[in-house]
Each structure stands twice: as structure tokens, then as C-alpha cells.
Write a structure and sequence with these properties.
Strand order of the largest sheet of chain A: 6-5-4-7-8-9-10
CATH topology of the largest domain in chain A: Rossmann fold
Number of domains of chain A: 2
Helix content of chain A: 25-40%
Largest sheet of chain A: 7 strands, parallel
Distance between the termini of chain A: 22 Å
CATH architecture of the largest domain in chain A: 3-Layer(aba) Sandwich
Oligomer: homodimer
CATH superfamily of the largest domain in chain A: NAD(P)-binding Rossmann-like Domain
Number of helices of chain A: 14
Strand content of chain A: 5-15%
Largest interface: A-B, 55 and 55 residues
Chain lengths: 329, 329
């Protein structure tokens, strides 16, 4: 149940045929613009064991497992956010669900690096000056390099760990902080462990926010935390907007002592009148961290591997558990 | 003979004291706004053996070695382009000259990576859309990652070699082409050698122009060469504007099949009415590749090392030879 665009970007280079070979009989349908009633009758008619789904697949009816399609065992969702498609109750009732999980982490890490390099060179400012203002540098132009900088990473999941190898050619001064991650994990990666989130922000010049969002972590990056970043420092968020108090961030960014790079926001799309849009030392991207269009095939490969495992009766990789469901957005 | 700004950015963290300790007696003078006559009389009065110079140091009089300051043996120039300060004849006559040489290469390589990542994500486009147009991505948004891409590098000097370790975490498919570089050098770095410049452009998706400018290489990247880049590819120039036929580049870029990132131009500052400024799939920076302000200290360290070597009677690192002078801009 995918759109032609989803097929053409996720299931490229023979991946659609591989998928058909794995789940026989397989019916490929275009769900673009499908009504809830149509969807219900299609589910009822085919009563599939496996549903391979994408962004445009309509929500599963609440009684899908009991009434509409009782054979359904596994929802293999190619993208990430499955809350619109599947309810928590369906997972509680035993429905197996997978998504792109950490297959996209390296592209999010790449986006974090881009934002840091871009903020430190003021690249977006200069690109705009060059295009629209006839601009050129002068004797007062200030730029910064990532080389030999002290880096602090909040969070230590798959994106943070994918970022480490991208940073290593620039600096060996990498610290991280994430509650509950054992010290030996950091050691393996050659990363120093900060004592607290406060010291992570105080002791480093470039801060990457890559922590998972939990209710306790909402607004964890507030004015006091942001003021710990040394003058001239850089703050990057590629995780979730709700980790940061956006009013505080805007206030601190407007003072001009730090550079900020954001890919994520509390409300997405970012409202047209949001203060971030008028603050020019914030580099803004519209949540395009990962995956890039050309790497959607990585997500497809993860799904194909899971379909293979499902068919062999093996556990799938990174199932969406109730806990992961609760954390997801 | 430096400005306060040059001292405050190059000779930071005790480097000015180190310099004074190395060249005794040492007179530190501010050359900001100095006339040619003042400069001539200061040179004549002090008749220095060593001149440590910066961007604002006035040109040396043509008769500096014969008449004005016959004791002068070594010009230790902290920045890069020494053509304004020193004539070729002075080098022919035995004046020793050094500049920042390859101490800045890694920051230029960093700028090249930033331009590639920025072009592939359309980061500057999106930053501008987000700030000025209330923009947000939609279903048609296309982005690219550097992961697993085929990279082609034209040139194999210190910047190219500094770029390799920054690219390695993204891809192992790195090729290079530069006439006269022995094959074993590429092998050492794990880089494939292209047969020709033509095949470098045809066979790769992201092309970095980092070759040294010689008269034969002027306009070497022309329309035919640019059309060899596969559709969707990326062309980055952080070397010299004159390597590229800018009319051809503008023509090809306007067609929209490749992304382009530029830090250098035939005429700098880039003229206000240059066509590049209205072509929005060219990411533009105002020649700020290297060094960044915070890494000018690397150039100072290179100069301090050279002053030490000079004092010990040892050969200096990377002297500006007549050949290097001829190639420099």
C-alpha cells in the first residue's frame, strides 16, 4: 500500500521485485487519496497477513485485528512515525510493527555536521548576502572551524554514535552525556563522559542535541542551560523540538553570542510567524535530517531484511515496542 | 609590521611573546594607513634582517635590498598572497620568503565539505525559504546525502589530501586526477587514480576542483567538462576561479541538472552584477575557505617554526620559491 513516489524512491534498483518475491501472493496498490471506507473494504477483501505501508497509507481501523482483517500479523512501515497508522492498542494486542529505525541515523548525523559547519562559517548568511545583497567579506568577517573544537553531545543513541566518526577527523575532544548509558559504551567509541548535562554545556564549544524525547526531557534545554555555552559557541538540534524551550532559545540566540542550527521544531511545519524565522543567526532547515531522498533505499533494505526474518520465523530488527511507540512522535 | 587585529588573531595565546623571544631585538609596529614614504624611512632607519609582515604591510620598495634595507634576508609573511608585498626579482636576488603555505589546507578542505553537504541538502535554499518565505518542505522536496557517493577530486596537493580524511567516513569511492602526481601517492591514501580529467568528471557524482592554477589550466573546466557530470551531480570549487570558464558554468548551472558550490571567482570581490548572484542553485561564499579566523594561529605556528629554523641556520618549511611565486595569485 504505497504511492508511486514511495515505490520510486524507497524500492529502487530491484527492491520492489525483491519485496514481491518475499511476500507471495503480493498485491501492490496505490493509496494516494484513498477514503477510509475504501481502505476498510480493501483490507476486508484481502485480509493480508503482512501490510507494507508508507506515508500515505490511511490509518488502520480500530477493529482491524478483530473484525476487518483478522489475519494481519505484521505492519512493515517503510518510514519512521507510525502513530498515525497504528494505535498503541494494536501493538499491545500483538501486532508486529517495524519502521526505518536506525537505518536513517547516519543521514541525520550528516545533517548535524552540515548545520555545525554551516553555523561556524555563517554559510547561509553569506550565501544570502552574495545572492541578494551584492555582498562580499570585509576586514571584520569572522569565521570558525570545527578543527580542534570541544564537542558536547547530549544523547547517545544511534544518531549520536553515527556522528562520532564524522567528527573524529576534526577533533578528538568529544564528550557526551546521556542518562543510563554505561560508561564502557563511551570508552569503546573514544568519547569522554560528562558528569552532568550542565557540565556538558559549560565545558564544550559545539553542542549537539540528539537525545530521545521523554516527558521528563521536555524543555530540558532552557535559558540557564543555553547560557552555559561559552560565548562564540554553537548549538545544534536535530532530535526533537520539544527538548528545547523555544522562547528561551530565541531570547538567547537574539543576543548574538552563540550560533544556532535547527532542523526540528515543537510545532511542524514551523508556523509562518514563528520568531525563529526573523532571527538570522539561527540556521533553519525544514526537518530534512533523514533520510535524504537518495538514502530512502537504506530504509527499504531494513524492511526487506525484516520481511526475510519474519518469513523465516526469526525476530525482526528493531521492532516498534510499546515503549518505543510511547517515545515516538 | 602588523595591525592590532592581525596580532590579536594570528599571534594569540602567547604567540606574540614567543615571536619576540625568537627575533631579538624586535620592534612591533602598526602599519595601518602607513604611507610609502613613512614605510621607506622606517625600513631605512631599522634596516631589519627579518620582516614579519601581514595583509596591511605596505609593498617593499624595489630597491629595498640594494639601498633601503640591505640587511634584509627574510620576509616572514603570516598570510598567503605575497605578490603585493614582494617582487619576483627580490626572490631571484636571494630574499627568503615564507607564507602560511599548507598550514591552512585543512580549513579549505573543511569549506569544500561544507559546500558539498550544503549543495546536496539545498541547505542555503531552505534556510532562505524558512527565513524569508515562510517556507516548509513538501512532498516534492529532494535531498541528497554524501554517503556512498562516488567522489572525484581534481588536484592532489595539500588541500586535496586534507579533504580525503573528511570524506572517508562517508564513502570509500574516492578518485583523483592530477598530472604529474606519482601513482603510489594515491595508493597510500586509498584513493583511485582516474585516467583523465574527462573520466574523473564522467565517472563521479561529486566533483571537487582543488587543482593549482597554471596558465595551461585556465578555463580547463568548460562546458563540455561540466556536461560530463552525471545529472543530479555536484560541482565544488575552492581552488581558483580561473580554473573554470564562468560563463559556461553559469549556463550549465542555470539548466538545473547539477548543484554548484563556489568559494572562489575569476574576479574578487565577485562583481555585484555577476550572473552567479541570480542563479539560486549555486551556493556562494565570499572566498572564506581558509583559514577561518580562529585557525589563523595555525599560520602563526608555521611562521614561528620558520623563525626558529632561520635562527638555527636550518632550511625553512615551504619557502616561496620563484616557481611558487609564479603560480600564486
Amino acid at each position: 500500500m504505497l504511492t508511486p513516489t514511495e515505490i520510486d524512491t524507497f524500492l529502487v534498483d530491484g527492491r520492489l521485485d525483491s519485496l514481491k518475491g518475499l511476500v507471495e501472493p503480493c498485491v501492490v496498490m496505490d493509496c494516494e487519496g484513498m477514503s477510509a471506507d475504501e481502505w476498510r473494504s480493501i483490507l476486508s477483501e484481502h485480509n493480508p497477513e503482512i501490510l507494507v505501508a508508507g506515508w500515505k497509507t490511511p490509518s488502520l481501523p480500530e477493529d482491524v485485528l478483530t473484525e476487518v482483517a483478522p489475519a494481519l500479523r505484521y505492519v512493515c512501515y517503510l518510514p519512521g512515525s507510525i502513530r498515525k497508522l497504528v494505535t498503541r492498542k494494536m501493538i499491545e494486542d500483538g501486532l508486529l510493527v517495524s519502521n526505518w529505525a536506525s537505518s536513517i541515523s547516519r543521514t541525520v548525523a550528516e545533517c548535524a555536521l552540515l548545520l555545525a559547519l554551516g553555523c561556524m562559517r555563517k554559510a547561509s548568511y553569506w550565501n544570502e548576502q552574495m545572492h541578494n545583497q551584492g555582498g562580499w567579506k570585509d576586514g571584520t568577517t569572522q569565521t570558525q572551524s570545527l578543527f580542534e573544537r570541544r564537542i558536547g553531545i547530549h544523547g547517545y543513541g544511534s544518531v549520536a554514535r553515527a556522528l562520532i566518526p564524522l567528527l573524529k577527523p576534526f577533533t578528538s575532544k568529544i564528550s557526551a552525556y546521556s542518562e543510563g548509558v554505561p560508561a564502557e559504551i563511551y570508552e569503546q567509541d573514544g568519547v569522554a563522559l560528562s558528569d552532568s548535562l550542565e557540565s556538558l554545556f559549560s565545558d564544550n564549544e559545539v553542542i549537539f542535541e540528539i537525545e530521545a524525547l521523554t516527558p521528563e526531557r521536555e524543555d530540558i534545554v532552557d535559558e540557564a542551560m543555553l547560557r552555559r555555552i561559552p560565548a562564540g559557541g554553537t548549538f545544534i538540534n536535530v532530535a526533537r523540538g520539544a527538548l528545547v524551550n523555544e522562547d528561551d532559545l530565541l531570547k538567547v540566540a537574539r543576543e548574538g553570542h552563540i550560533q544556532v542550527g535547527l532542523d526540528v521544531y515543537k510545532v511542524e511545519p514551523l508556523p509562518a510567524d514563528h520568531g525563529f524565522r526573523t532571527c538570522h543567526n539561527i540556521m533553519l532547515l525544514p526537518h530534512l535530517g533523514g533520510p535524504t531522498t537518495d538514502r530512502r533505499k537504506d530504509a527499504a533494505d531494513q524492511s526487506l531484511e525484516n520481511l526475510k526474518r519474519y518469513k523465516r520465523g526469526e525476530p525482526i530488527l528493531s521492532p516498534v515496542t510499546q515503549e518505543i511507540y510511547d517515545r515516538s512522535t
